[in-house]
Amino acid sequence: MCRPSHFEVVYAINPWMDPAKPVDTGLAVLQWERLRELYLELGHTVDLIDPLPGLPDMVYAANGATVVDGRVLGASFRNAERRAEGPAYLEWFRANGFTELHDPAYVNEGEGDFLVTGRFVLAGHGFRSDARSHQEAQSFFGRPVISLELVDPRYYHLDTALAVLDGDEIMYHPEAFAPGSREVLRSLFPDAVEVSAADAEVFGLNAVSDGLNVVLPEAARILAGRLRERGFNPIGMDLSELLKGGGSVKCCTLEIRH
Ligand code: ARG
Predict the structure, then answer these.
(1) Whether the predicted model's global pTM rises above the 0.90 cut
(2) 102 forms bridges with which residues in the sheet?
(3) Which ligand 1 atom sits nearest the alpha carbon of residue 77?
(4) Would you write out the chain's pLDDT as a tens digit for each of its 258 residues?
(5) What are the extents of the domains in the chain?
(6) 247 lines ligand 1 (CB under 6 A)
(7) Cα 156 to middle of ligand 1, angstroms
């Protein structure tokens, strides 16, 4: 995770960002601290990367890399405003003892567009990651990569439209995907939780699950109820300030899979 010490909205690279709207950086830090404390209470380890001045979106750690089996696929950002984050995150992994590192050839925004299930790596394209990065990820990780096309600019990253709950159990908002990709999701994940616009619009799918606890924005109330019925323990969080940058729980969390 990356503390939002330098968080602000001074440019707009997704429809949620409005530089005219005030952001309370102090409140962003408090809300983020609560998320970090929650992970610790749930028994998870949280590593921190130092936030760099001039990189207000660095708090969205999910975009910094993708790590599977200890292999680190570096990120390469679409927008110039975030480009310096890629090398900064890769350097963190190098400094922390990871040896299998891949400097990407194609644009990929880390776990914003790569999500890992039991069998697959699900990969988004359409707004940020270059579809050619999907092949690159498949070669590097040696796992089948399923390419999915995003069509709604509000759901510009895969992790705003789909979340992995446990193994090959997922939840997603079908309307965020092109018709062909919807069919792929229905055939690969027939038991998935299909999430309505009301829950998706409040970033309900920007969730982190450890297989039991599902941490998600508290406004996604209908979804929380459905997850409870499925045997999960949904935990709602208020990340109102980070939402102004177009991100929530999952965006703030890069999962390290050793
Ligand atoms: N302002 C950031 C951007 O548009 C938000 C990134 C959200 N991160 C995510 N994993 N979806 O790039």
Answers:
(1) yes
(2) 73
(3) 12
(4) 999 999 999 999 999 999 999 999 999 999 999 999 999 999 999 999 999 999 999 999 999 999 999 999 999 999 999 999 999 999 999 999 999 999 999 999 999 999 999 999 999 999 999 999 999 999 999 999 999 999 999 999 999 999 999 999 999 999 999 999 999 999 999 999 999 999 999 999 999 999 999 999 999 999 999 999 999 999 999 999 999 999 999 999 999 999
(5) 25-252
(6) yes
(7) 8
Q: Measured from the CB, is residue 112 less than 6 Å from ligand 1?
A: yes
**Strand runs (DSSP E) across the chain, as ranges?**
65-68, 71-74, 101-102, 114-116, 121-125, 145-149, 162-166, 169-172, 193-194, 208-209, 213-217, 233-237
74 within ligand 1 shell (Cβ under 6 A):
no
Say how many Å lie between the CA of residue 116 and the centre of ligand 1: 18
ipTM value: 0.97
* Residues 111/161, Cβ–Cβ less than 8 Å: no
Instruction: Give, as one character, the DSSP assignment of residue 213.
Output: E
Q: Could you tell me the distance, in angstroms and rounded to a whole number, from the CA of residue 56 to the centre of ligand 1?
A: 11
Task: Indicate the CATH number of 25-252 among 3.40.50.1370, 3.40.50.300, 2.40.10.10, 3.75.10.10.
Answer: 3.75.10.10
- Which atom belonging to ligand 1 lies closest to the Cα atom of 251? 10
Q: Mind telling me the catalytic residues?
A: 157, 251
